[in-house]
Amino acid sequence: MLACDFFHVDCAVTLQRIYVFFVIEIHTRHVQILGTSTNPDGPWTAQQARNLVGDLGERAAEFQFLIRDRAGQFTTMFDAVFADAGIQIVKIPPRCPQANCYAERFVRTVRAELTDRMLIFGQQHLRRVLDHYLSHYNQQRPHRGRGLRPPSPVQPAPTAADPTSTVIRHPILGGPGRPGALLRPAPLRTGLARFPRIRLKQARADLLPQTPYVLLGGPQINGVPVQGFVLRSVHHRDNGHRGLRPASRLRRHGV
Predict the structure, then answer these.
(1) Topology of domain 2-146, CATH
(2) Is the per-residue pLDDT at 23 higher than 50?
(3) Backbone angles phi, psi at 88, to 5 degrees
(4) CA-to-CA distance for 51 and 22, rounded, in angstroms?
(5) Domain extents for the chain?
């Protein structure tokens, strides 16, 4: 069984809203990003469906149903593509996203672990970040529904605890490679927070973040790769978390 849905990401510089179209295999929890677009209309969505059926190939016979909502992007052309492959479309009831719970749970996961902790500068940056995250999600991240095993593990399942074995952490997107949390709060010294070839401009004491996040990976400024950002949480009167904003400007050394 398959499930598909959209989620959006707002760019920090261009202020564009990019829609991400994905599909998840419910049995294995394997996720595939079908495409990103600022205007996902009916023909675009139908073309992504054709690409998915072509990528599945003979595996398309393993799936009998596709769960989707009633959004306007899913036209009769979209349904016809899967009908030709022998996959029946299952529409969830109106205003009932819980019926597509597997897709909605992935949206919550990718927001909590990735998009809510990074400033996305454009569509190309978003695709590159999603590719790295999906590699971690499908091959390394444990899932409770699969007995703490990844959807497509690259290593064999451990058989018994070995006291001589060690756990190796690999950085992903510049953050610590801890499963389930790609990025974590990092300490920030008062004054300059130095990164490779990037300097954080001196900020006032009232602007220093209480919960800084060190994020790596991004575009280029004057030909220099931007390798670090410091963000601070934004809290309103109701003490609700409403996203992240830059703590101060980034300035190149010698400029």
Answers:
(1) Nucleotidyltransferase; domain 5 (3.30.420)
(2) yes
(3) -90, 135
(4) 12
(5) 2-146, 194-252
pLDDT in tens, 36-95: 999 999 999 999 999 999 999 999 999 999 999 999 999 999 999 999 999 999 999 998
CA 17, CA 231: separation in Å to the nearest integer?
20
Tokens 């990528």 -> residue: 55
Helices (H), the chain: 42-56, 76-84, 101-113, 123-139
- 200 burial type by CB count under 10 A (0-12 exposed, 13-18 middle, 19+ buried): buried
CA–CA gap between residue 84 and residue 89 (Å, rounded): 11
Closest C-alpha among 244, 217, 240, 242 to residue 228 = 217
Mean pLDDT check: name the lowest of 12-26, 28-42, 138-152, 161-175.
161-175
Residue with token string 């280029």: 220
Residue of 215, 208, 213 whose CA lies nearest to 185: 213
Two structure tokens written together for 239 = 């003490």
Please report the pLDDT score of residue 117 as a whole number.
87
Query: Is residue 184 helix, strand or coil?
Result: coil
User: Nearest 10 degrees: CA dihedral of 42, 46, 51, 54?
Assistant: 180
Q: Which two tokens stand for residue 97?
A: 């996203």
Neighbours of 101 (CB within 10 A): 13
